[in-house]
Amino acid sequence: MAPRELVWTHDLNGEQTGVVSHGLMKLVTDATLDDAETLTLELPADDPKVPLLIEDTQLRHRASRWVIDEVIQERQGPRTIVRAEAVALWSELGDFSHVGSVVVTNATVRSGGNQLLAGTGWTVGGSTPTTGSHYYE
User: Fold this and answer.
1) In angstroms, rounded to a whole number, what is the distance separating the alpha carbons of residues 67 and 9?
2) What tens digit of pLDDT does each residue of 33-48 get?
């Protein structure tokens, strides 16, 4: 008997909101060299965990984090299923949508970078601290 797969759900602040496991009908991860990694999971529409699967919810499966970007409800024969499609969290860093400029004054590179990454679950790695003004766009 195969071990049961677990998928943890997290809100936008990274707080765990639930675990999906028992009702999973399908769980597939896909990675290609020229595209983002994806995770697809399916549950019966009447599963009590379905309300956890909304867009922008973070998922954790094994050692990876994902962000739901689409939730689809469809009929498959006599039953209705809900399919959540998610992309790897790291791919969100490659979104070049310009959301505005930020000026950080009298901060180290690390603290300025961490302010920009606040709420993403990412932090700035090692850097040599300097003071002064930094302009990020």
Assistant:
1) 10
2) 767 789 999 999 999 9
